[in-house]
Structures are given as C-alpha cells and as structure tokens.
Amino acid sequence: MTLPASQLISMQEGKTLEFKRDISSPKNIIKTLVAFANTAGGRLLIGVEDDSREVRGVENPLDEEERLCSLIADNIAPRLVPNVELISVENKTLLIVEVYPSGQRPHWVRKEGPDEGVYVRLGSTNRKADRELIAELKRTVTGISFDEQVLVDRTVDDLDFDAAKVCFERHRKLVEKDLVSMRLVAEDQGHLVPTVGGMLLFGKDREMIFPDAWIQCGRFVGKDKADILDHIDIHEHLPVAVERVMEFLKKHAMRGADFSELRRRDVWSIPLTILREAVINAVVHSDYSQRGAPIRVAFFDDRIEIENPGILLPGLTIEDMLQGASKIRNHVIARVFRELDLIEQWGSGVRRMFKEAEILGLPQPEIIEIGMRVRFIVYLEESIGVSTESHVGKEENARWSGEQVTEHVTEHVTEHVTEHVTEHVTEHVTEQVTSLVICLEDKSLGRREAMQYIGISSRPTFVYDYLQPAIQAGLVEMTQPDSPKSPTQKYRLTPKGRNFLTKEVAKHDQ
C-alpha cells in the first residue's frame, strides 16, 4: 500500500476506497472488488465502520482472511487475485484487500453471469455495466479503441473527403493516402473501408450510424436549468463543431473594450482558452458507443459545464488526470485533432487548464463523474446576467458599459505592454500576453498554431495584442530571428519568459 492504514481511515470513501464493518454481507463485498478490478483498482478496509470511521477490528482475523479469500475465488470470474493483508491499527486487526486494475477485465459476479454481473466504480458506488460499457472494457484490454474499428458495410465514398481537405488546408494539402495513415480508413478483405473514427470525423451520413455524435449547447438564465434563454444543436463535422461551440459561448459572453491604448482591445468575460481546451477534450474523450448521450455544453450565470458521455477509462482517476496522466479513448480522433494542432502532447491539456485558471485568478475548475458521464466545470470570475431582449448575440447587448469596462480594466486587466517596456515589465503584463506565455510553456508554435490554441481567428488581434507585446517584453522570441517572415517561423519562451511563468504560478500558490 502506498498509504498507511491509519491515513486511509481518515479519508472519505470514493472511487478507490471503501470501508466495511465485517464480511457479513459478502455479496456487496464481491461487487465492490469486481468494480475495483474493472475500473481503477482500489482498497477495501474491513473492520472499520463506514459511517463513523470507528476502528472495530475483525474477530478471528486468520479465519476471516481465509473465508474472504474463498469468497473471492468462488464468486468472481475470471479469477481475481487481490493482495490481502492483516494490519494492526489502534491495537485492533483490520483486513485490507488491495485490488489492482485488471488486465483480464471485465470481471463479473459469477452467479450473475458475464452479461449481468459486470460492475464498475462510479464515485463511492458500484454501478452495473450495460452492454456498451462491457464492450468498452474489453476494448481497453485489446488496445484497439472504438473509433479504430472498421465499418465493413461502408465504403470510402461515405467519407466527405472535401470537408477533410478544408479542415487541413491551413496545415497541409491532404491527399487520399493520408486517410490510411490517419486511420480514417482501413483495409478489410482487400478493400478500404471507413473506420468508426473516419465516419465520426468526416462521415457524410454520420448520424445514420451514430445518432448521438453531436453537441448540444444551452444558455440558461440564472444558476440552474429551470429557464433556458437560447440553445443550439451542432451537427457539423467534429473539428468544425469545436469552433461552433466557441462561437455560441462568445455570443452569450460579455465583451468589453480596453481603450487605455491607441488600439481597442477586447476583454472577454469568460476564459476562452480554458473553455476551448475543455470542449476539445470532451470531443476527443467521449464514448461514442453510448446511445442517447450527446456532448452537452451548459452556460450558466456563474459557470460553464462541458459534459461528455463515458466514464474515465480503467486505471485512470481524476487525481491522476490532475497530475498529467492521460489515456486516449479515441485514437483516430485524437490523431486527427493533433494533426490539426487542436491538441498538444498527451496529458498536458488538463494541467494547462488548471494552471491558466490559477494564473488568471479564477476559481479552480472541477472534474466530476456523474453517472456514465464526465463533467468539466469552469467557474467564472463574476456572475454574468443575460439580456431580456431577443437579439442577445448583438454586440450592443453583449458589450459592457463604459463604466463597467473601466472598472473591469482597473481591477482585472494589468497594464498593456508597450514598446517602452522596462526590465520590470513582467510585473504588468496583460492577460493576452499571459495566455501566449502559457501556450508556449513546453513547445515552440507557429502563428496559426498559437492562434488556434488561444482561440482567436483575427491575425491583427493576435499580432498586436499578443505577439508584439510579448516579444517587446522579452518574454517570447522567434526561432528564426534572421528570417522574421519565414513560413516556418515559430515562437518560443525566452529564459525571462520561463522565469515569468514560474513566478506567476508561485505567486498564485501563495
């Protein structure tokens, strides 16, 4: 065990921890061990009251250990071999069962059978797995993702190659052999056929096969779903759908203007960079085998929730994600999104979102599993009311008043970096420059890549409000300073930029 039993007792029951007074209810114990093995592993402490955490100990510990091992052997299939220990705590003996994520999943309760007896762990509860989830558990063992499977009754003509070329036109010219290398199509009995991922991304009639592979967006009045102001159902190809979601969020955000410089600078009331990353994460990690479960984006006055179907993959916990661990549910979709520079290195997205929220002074986002879905919650700095007029998307309604802008700029936007930057400029950089520094944390990016990461489409805005101030501040530099207009030009952090980022993170840790 990585943690001593005394420390485990002080923790709350959850995805990987459960307490039992004794083994008088073996059926529940068996379900818990099956769920642990099928999900992220876990530890069961027997001899502890699950409500009060009072250490009661077990009577006749050696006999109870033997009985428990027999119960496990007789009631779980395939065979499960957990680590069972007797531990002394407060002069009493506890029985501790440690289960690791199994490479033979799915396990099931033998009496219930392989179709009805498979359980997974959701929070502190055990949930019976349905047919789609059982298939998902099997796939995670084989290493073949759902979107890598071939659709033998379809042909290459079922893919919208023109739409794919449009998505890639900013990056490179897409040719038909790229469909094979990116696993959009695969060979089956001598013929090329679409994969599930190919149809999800660029299928001409995607919703005939996957009727729930779309995104539902809603703007609600207040802090619950009692009153909806506006909604949109997005059925476009997945790479394009990401942009449509961002357009919807911007439509209902407030956009202020900072006129403290000669140029106007937009100040959005929502953290676009974090939200874009969260939407992309939901698209890449959704379980598209589930029925009746589209991706949902809910915009409330005080928060924005992005929710996708599918529990966390076996062996992965929310705590693991916060440390940078990542498992890819959809290999094909992830590959294409990376080719499009929509995602970066595996596992960096969640950490980057939390770090940016910290630097911007926002409440920390939250990741929770709710039923068979994962919800990412982005809390806003200030509550945003909605207009009662019908055209809420008009700039006249969405823009802050001059007084609001002045107050926001005074309280929340640091001084804009100008060409007269001093060595102390890192104390007064804008949110835009900070966003650029964050996205260059561990890589060099070209202009288009950086713009996509930040979530803006205007080149002048990027150059004048992000890039030039960052370079003038000495935080960012060109990789090819002698060829500033080179088509392969990229940008990276300077030592000063890395020092600035380190100080910003440390400052918000205090």
TrEMBL record:
It holds the Pfam family Fic-like_C. InterPro entries: Fic-like_C (IPR049514), RecG_C_sf (IPR038475), Schlafen_AlbA_2_dom (IPR007421), Schlafen_AlbA_2_dom_sf (IPR038461). Residues 13-129 form the Schlafen AlbA-2 domain. Gene3D superfamilies: 3.30.565.60, Schlafen, AAA domain. Residues 431-494 form the Filamentation induced by cAMP protein Fic-like C-terminal domain. PANTHER family: GLPR-RELATED TRANSCRIPTIONAL REPRESSOR (PTHR30595), SCHLAFEN ALBA-2 DOMAIN-CONTAINING PROTEIN (PTHR30595:SF6). This is Predicted transcriptional regulator, contains HTH domain. It comes from Methanolobus profundi.
